[in-house]
C-alpha cells in the first residue's frame, strides 16, 4: 500500500469520526406539573397550567386536576415560564445540562425542582 492511500484512508476516517462525534444532543426539554391539593377557597377541582416558551409564545396549556400530573416534552431550551391559575408562577431556564423542570402545587405552596 502506498503512503498516499493510507493518508487518504486515515483522513476519511477522521472526518467520519469527527462528524459522528459532533452530533448535537437534544435541543428541547420537558416540563412536569403535579397538583397535590387545591388552595383553600379555590373554585373547581383543577388549575389551568400554561407553559410559555423562550420565544414568549404559548408552548402548551392544560387543565390539571388534583391528584394528577401533567407533562409535556419538546419545550425548546431557553428561558421559559410556567403559570398556574393557583397563582404559582415560575421562570427558569431549560438547558442541555438541566433539561427538565418539575413544579409541584400543594395548596398554597408551589415548589420547583429539576
Description of the molecule:
The protein contains one helix and eight strands. Helix content is 17%, strand content 52%. The protein starts with a helix and ends with a strand. It has one domain: Sandwich (Immunoglobulin-like). The protein is α+β, with helices and mostly antiparallel strands and 114 residues long. A four-stranded mixed beta sheet has the order 4-1-7-8, with no helix packed on it. A four-stranded antiparallel beta sheet has the order 3-2-5-6, with no helix packed on it. A hairpin with a 5-residue loop joins β2 and β3. The protein is elongated and about 80 Å long. Keywords: Signal.
Give a concise summary.
This protein has one helix at 3-21, and strands at residues 28-37, 46-52, 58-65, 68-76, 78-84, 89-94, 100-106, 109-113.
Overall mean confidence score, pLDDT: 83
CATH architecture: Sandwich
Shape: elongated
Biggest pleated sheet = 4 strands, mixed
Helix content: 10-25%
The CATH topology is what?
A: Immunoglobulin-like
| Count of the domains | 1
Number of continuous helical runs: 1
Q: What is the name of the CATH class? A: Mainly Beta
| Range of strand content | over 45%
Superfamily (CATH H level) name: Immunoglobulins
How many E-type strands?
8
Record the SSE blueprint.
Layout lengths: L2 H19 L6 E10 L8 E7 L5 E8 L2 E9 L1 E7 L4 E6 L5 E7 L2 E5 L1
Parallel strand pairs: 1-7
Antiparallel strand pairs: 1-4, 2-3, 2-5, 5-6, 7-8
Keywords: Signal
Amino acid at each position: 500500500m502506498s503512503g498516499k492511500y493510507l493518508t487518504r484512508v486515515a483522513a476519511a476516517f477522521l472526518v467520519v469520526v469527527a462528524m459522528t462525534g459532533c452530533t448535537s444532543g437534544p435541543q428541547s426539554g420537558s416540563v412536569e406539573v403535579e397538583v397535590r391539593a387545591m388552595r383553600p377557597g379555590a373554585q373547581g377541582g383543577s388549575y389551568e397550567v400554561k407553559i410559555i416558551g423562550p420565544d414568549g409564545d404559548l408552548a402548551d396549556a392544560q387543565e390539571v386536576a388534583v391528584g394528577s400530573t401533567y407533562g409535556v416534552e419538546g419545550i425548546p431550551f431557553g428561558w421559559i415560564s410556567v403559570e398556574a391559575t393557583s397563582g404559582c408562577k415560575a421562570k427558569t431556564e431549560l438547558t442541555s445540562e438541566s433539561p427538565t423542570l418539575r413544579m409541584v402545587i400543594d395548596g398554597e405552596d408551589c415548589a420547583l425542582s429539576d
